[in-house]
Amino acid sequence: MRQISIVIPGLYPLVKTLPAWQKLISGATTHASLHYHLLIAELCRLNPLPLAAISASYYQLPASSHWLKATPISITTDQNSAYVLNASLQLSRQEIQLLTTDLNQLFFQDGLIFHVSEDELLLELTKPLEVTTSPLYEIINKNVAEYLPKGSNKSFWHKLFIEVQMFLYQHPLNRAREQKFQPTISALWFWGEAELPISIPSIPWQILYSDTSWLKHYAAFAAIEFHSLAKTSPLPTDLLATQSSCLVIMEHFLWEPTIDSPQLLEQCMALLSQLKNQPKTEITLYPGDGNCYHLFRQNSWWQWFKTLIK
Q1: How far apart are CA 265 and CA 85, in angstroms?
Q2: Last residue of some domain: 191, 207, 234?
Q3: What is the pLDDT of residue 232?
Q4: What pLDDT does 81 receive?
Q5: In DSSP terms, which residues pair with 123 in a beta bridge?
Q6: Domain count of the chain?
Q7: N or C: which end of the chain has fewer CB within 10 A?
Q8: CB within 8 A of 288, min separation 6: which ones?
């Protein structure tokens, strides 16, 4: 039986009133789903999820070090609080390289080493972190102070967060971004700690489709095939042709939960309907409403029988 798991957070509000959606989920079995970060950890068979270490391994950086992701974010403030406004700033490679060089000059004496990644920075430490961080997905439009690192070494990280803010406030990179009417970089969000497991996780998928770099890194670590997805298309059409079990994760919907074109929505629903009607295929859909939907062919006597005995 081929398994296809599809994670599209933010899809449900766009399709919930469409007749095509109601038809798609008719006869589906429904269960409560985990919060996004825990869901991805479960699907990847890695909990806790070592996002930074996975990317460090992909770039063949020292496995003996400890790693954090350092994601550029934009913050807005009111009289009492600071809120994360944007966590997908789309920095160029040149901008990331400039930040990395300047940060290393500033914080080298603190034992911090920044590295260039595809769309953010990686932070290398030689000593254990002794803190737990909050996933980036949890902090959008939230008060930053409530989500700063916690643990025995939290004071160091709180101080570092402020120092980086001060460093970025007058940085030439932000002045250049302002002139281009681009959002400025207010801070770096440190997150994604945990160590890589000794053994490769055992997962049921042969192909991983995603629009985010860290999942490409995970696919390399898990030794499975990876296909990059364009942000302009919610689902890969070659799901209809392959006979492999597949995992599809559209992470950009966390930051931009919209599809500009109604035609794309129609294409998405049509593809899901076609997948649902393929023989010997089980589809688990996570549309971001707190549920997962198990879709199957209604004319399959075996699937019909399974719904009776559950």
Answers
A1: 26
A2: 191
A3: 66
A4: 86
A5: 68, 114
A6: 2
A7: C
A8: 8, 9, 10, 11, 12, 13, 36, 253, 257
Residue ranges in the chain modelled with pLDDT below 50: 300-302, 304
Q: Is the pTM of this model over 0.85?
A: yes
Task: Note whether 218 and 160 are same-domain residues.
Answer: no
Do residues 76 and 171 both lie within one domain? yes
- Tell me the two tokens of residue 291: 């549920």
Let me know whether 7 and 72 are in one domain: no
> Which of the 8 DSSP states describes residue 80?
S
Q: How long, in residues, is the chain?
A: 310
- Choosing from 168, 191, 214, the residue where a domain stops is 191
Cβ neighbours around 167 below 10 Å, total: 16
Task: State residue 141 phi and psi, 5-degree precision.
Answer: 60, 25
Longest dimension (CA), the chain: 67
**Tokens standing for 221?**
């670590």
Helices 93-107 and 172-179, axial angle in degrees (round to 10):
150
Q: Is there a single domain that holds both residue 183 and residue 205?
A: no
Rounded Cα distance between 158 and 132, Å, is 12
Its sign, for the CA torsion 166, 168, 172, 174, is negative
- The identity of residue 234, as a single letter, is P
Q: Are 272 and 24 in contact (CB under 8 A)?
A: yes
